[in-house]
Design a protein that fits this description.
Length: 95
């Protein structure tokens, strides 16, 4: 099932084209992949996780943050930033 889900993605098409992967190669690759569905607004990974994962987005987008070492209370600052982004989207962005 996972093969059928990702075989037509740009990611897989690029692998086939740039690395000369065959359909059988892609089928072999998908044996080692797992599928994870995430709802809008959820966090599939959290800052500080040490997981080494390759994520292929089938639909939607993912925002990432890198810790700014010059901000003393970075965790507090990013929480305020996220609160303001949510407030802006709820109050001013077109729906």
């Amino acid at each position: 099932m996972l093969f059928e889900t990702i075989e037509k993605t740009k990611f897989i098409e690029n692998i086939k084209k740039n690395y000369n992967f065959t359909t059988d190669d892609v089928k072999e690759l998908t044996k080692y992949l797992t599928y994870k569905s995430c709802s809008k607004g959820s966090r599939p990974i959290t800052f500080g996780d040490n997981d080494k994962k390759l994520m292929i987005l089938l639909k939607g987008s993912l925002r990432t943050y890198a810790k700014n070492q010059s901000i003393k209370d970075w965790y507090w600052a990013i929480s305020i930033h996220n609160t303001l982004r949510l407030w802006k989207s709820e109050q001013f962005d077109h729906k």
